[in-house]
Design a protein that fits this description.
It is globular, with a radius of gyration of 23 Å. The longest helix has 21 residues. By secondary structure, it is α/β, with parallel strands linked by helices. The strands form three sheets. Strands 3, 13, 14, 15, 16, 17, 18, 19 and 20 form a nine-stranded mixed sheet that branches. It has an eight-stranded parallel β-barrel with strand order 4-5-6-7-8-10-11-12, surrounded by seven helices. The chain is about 30% helix and about 25% strand. The protein contains twelve helices and 20 strands. The protein has two domains: about 150 residues, Lyase, Ornithine Decarboxylase, Chain A, domain 1; about 240 residues, TIM Barrel (Alpha-Beta Barrel), CATH 3.20.20. Bound molecules: ligand LLP. Ligand LLP binds next to helix 10 and helix 11.
């Protein structure tokens, strides 16, 4: 991942640029995105799945430069709001290359998707069928997928498991709602059902749940053919591919995953005597997570209750993942070389909660002190896209590095920005 190159005397570089120099220029907290790493990850997906449509899941992180990078690497986009869609359109990605998601699409989301002409709208519930058909109008035509839940409990945390029957995404195959929705969509003259979608969950490092999903979705495709005489040409397997947050953590092996998914799809289609549908996949975290590094400055070191706390100038406002999912990171000292003994510490954020903990049970040099810089690798996904302004702390800037140069992509949120929306008295 970006930022893990071995330091020479503490000098850690990303994309040929020293993190300490970036922190000096842009301040901290700072997010650094390695353009070459993002592009390489996009290409790894294209190489592993040359026959598939690869859609980057914009919710992991989105800005105009990123849209351009993934677009140039041949990926489309999974968007889930008028906001994501509008940003991607403004960045120049053709809407035809986008898929619109959402379990509760607002009228504005649907209108944006249909008026811009997104490639696919993913139907997430029975009540959406009529809404989408009405928004498309009698003279329009919209390609749609139906999101189904194959009853699979996969994902790194209960909060990100979305393919069981007891959560609010998709239509269940098990209770027949998926089949019923297929029948209704097929009766809509202005909706063209191109296939089925499922997104199992997030942070999955094992291919097996996907193989089960392939078999269950192909089984449903066979029933659609038997019942309606319709061959669905597309199968969208969603995203969820897990990455390692700390050295030694498991990660999804992409080439092996691609081989096994392809094998399962071909086998399932052969036994159902179905043509093999075009595959769509929607990786978010695996494209951008390992390409990002967060850089913080140490504000305080406190010894209390038998522990050493190292407090940073960011925390749960720019990275709510530890508080939400109990995820732990592997921060490291950058910008100076220390020969001090490693010592166990708890790395905490600046926010007013005991739960603002970024890393526990990690070691840092015993002489870590205020003013030091800490880098948090694998910070590219679901940090800034989920960031808040808690405690009225502005959100950090994003800098892209490539070939030894850096450029600002997103500027820091200022106190003026924060105050501007407060229009009462
Ligand atoms: N497709 C759909 C329909 C999704 O809902 C998601 C993620 C993805 C694709 C991409 O999943 P990925 O490849 O990034 O795992 N905030 C959580 C993750 C939530 C994921 C939501 N949906 C986290 O920080 O772990």
């Amino acid at each position: 991942p970006a930022g893990t190159a071995e330091p020479a005397a503490g000098r850690v570089t990303v994309g040929g640029v020293a993190l300490a120099a970036l922190a000096g220029e842009h301040g901290t907290p700072l997010y650094v995105l390695d353009e070459a790493e993002v592009r390489a990850r996009c290409r790894a997906y294209r190489d592993a799945f040359p026959e598939a449509t690869v859609l980057y899941a914009a919710k992991a992180f989105l800005c105009r430069a990123l849209v351009r990078w993934v677009g140039e690497e041949g990926l489309g986009l999974d968007v889930c709001s008028a906001g994501e869609l509008g940003l991607a359109v403004a960045a120049g990605l053709p809407p035809e290359r986008m898929v619109l998601h959402g379990s509760a699409k607002s009228p504005a989301d649907l209108r944006a998707g249909i008026e811009h002409g997104v490639g696919r709208v993913v139907i997430d519930g029975a009540a959406e069928i009529g809404r989408i058909a009405a928004a498309v109008g009698p003279t329009g035509r919209q390609r749609v997928l139906i999101r189904v839940t194959p009853g699979i409990g996969a994902g790194a945390h209960p909060k990100v498991r979305t393919a069981t029957d007891d959560q609010h995404f998709g239509l269940s195959i098990g209770d027949g709602h998926a089949q019923h929705a297929v029948a209704r969509v097929l009766r809509q003259p202005n909706l063209e059902l191109t296939g089925l979608h499922c997104h199992l969950g997030s942070g999955i490092t094992d291919a097996r749940p996907y193989l089960v999903a392939v078999r269950r979705l192909v089984g449903l495709m066979a029933r659609v053919r038997d019942t309606h005489g319709v061959l669905l040409p597309e199968l969208d397997l969603g995203g969820g591919h897990g990455v390692a947050y700390r050295p030694g953590d498991p990660a999804l092996d992409l080439p092996a995953f691609a081989r096994r998914v392809r094998g399962a799809l071909i086998a399932a289609c052969a036994s159902a005597r179905l043509p093999v549908p075009r595959l769509l996949i929607e990786p978010g975290r695996a494209i951008v997570g390992p390409a990002g590094v967060a850089v913080y400055r140490v504000l305080a070191v406190k010894h209390t209750g038998g522990r050493t706390f190292v407090a940073l100038d960011g925390g749960m406002s720019d990275n709510p993942r530890p508080a939400l999912y109990g995820v732990r990171y592997a921060p490291r000292l950058v910008g100076r070389h220390s020969t001090a003994e490693p010592r166990p510490v708890t790395v905490v954020g600046r926010h007013c909660e005991a739960g603002d903990v970024l890393a526990e049970g990690v070691t840092l040099p015993a002489d870590v002190r205020p003013g030091d810089l800490l880098a948090l690798p694998v910070a590219g996904a679901y940090h800034l896209s989920m960031a808040s302004t808690y405690n009225l702390v502005g959100r950090p800037p994003v800098v892209a590095v490539a070939g030894g140069t850096a450029r600002l992509l997103v500027r820091r949120e200022t106190l003026a920005d924060l105050g501007a929306r407060d229009v009462g008295r």
